[in-house]
Amino acid sequence: MKKIFPFAVALSLALLVAWQIFAGEKNYYLLIIAVLVLSMLPFFVSFEKEKVTSREITLIASLTALAVVSRAVFYLVPQVKPIAAVVAVSGVCLGGKRGYLVGALSMLVSNFLFGQGIWTPFQMVAMGFVGLIFGVVFRKIKTNKISLALVGFLSVTVVYGLIVDLSTVLMISGDMNIKSVLSVYLAGAPFNLIFGATTAVFLFLFGEAFIKKIDRINIKYGICTNEVSL
After folding, report:
1. pLDDT in tens for each of the 230 residues of the chain?
2. Under 8 Å CB-to-CB from 197, ≥6 apart: which residues?
3. Residue (of 178, 184, 179, 180) closest to 161 by Cα position
4. Residue 23, Cα to own-chain centre: how many angstroms?
5. Residue 188 contacts by C-beta under 8 Å, 6 or more apart in sequence?
6. Does the reported pTM lie above 0.85?
7. DSSP-derived secondary structure letter, 53
8. Among 159, 153, 161, CA closest to 188
9. Shortest CA distance to 91 belongs to which of 32, 37, 159, 7?
């Protein structure tokens, strides 16, 4: 039953997406959220199938908690939050898959403070992709202040911004057309730039030191030594 359940959920969501694509009147809320949940399933299911130690779960939970706190501490300053920097370091140190989990879970949990809504799955997928990107990119290139800041700025400004702003498009645009979509993305560009710049600054100033701390814990206790990629 445990093995069948994820397949049943994925099949149901896939059928829902197919139905919405060919339906006369499309429910974009339903369609997009189904796609987002489908995109998250492989990460959570594959993680569940692995032999995960209590130390690994503790480290992932600790990084998730730190990401949540880092967002909450800067509650009064819009877009100036180091949560993406914490997720980025998680991706570098633990690999893309675990970076995705930290990113997705941190947005889900922190939204109990900031407010849940249609935007939550968008934020989960968007922040998850930030962790995934860092896990993939920094398998290929060396970590330093410049590379961390540059990848952080681009991943948050472009990837996170594009995905999260889509929720705004769905909420305020009754008629989906190029003009309305572009207006939403243009309005959101300054906020995405601020968030991206903030992430870049935090990674430039503290990224390398943070990575060394996590790597030291990782090596000392033998955590995540079998998976440093996807």
Report:
1. 555 655 565 566 566 656 655 565 656 566 666 766 776 676 666 666 667 777 888 888 999 999 999 999 988 887 889 999 999 999 999 888 889 989 988 998 898 888 877 788 889 889 999 999 999 999 989 999 999 999 999 999 999 999 999 888 877 755 667 888 888 899 899 999 999 999 999 999 999 999 999 988 888 777 765 444 45
2. 153
3. 184
4. 30
5. 161, 164, 165, 168
6. no
7. -
8. 161
9. 159
Residue whose pair of structure tokens reads 């009147």 in the numeric block: 25
Q: Name residue, tokens 């870049």.
A: 200
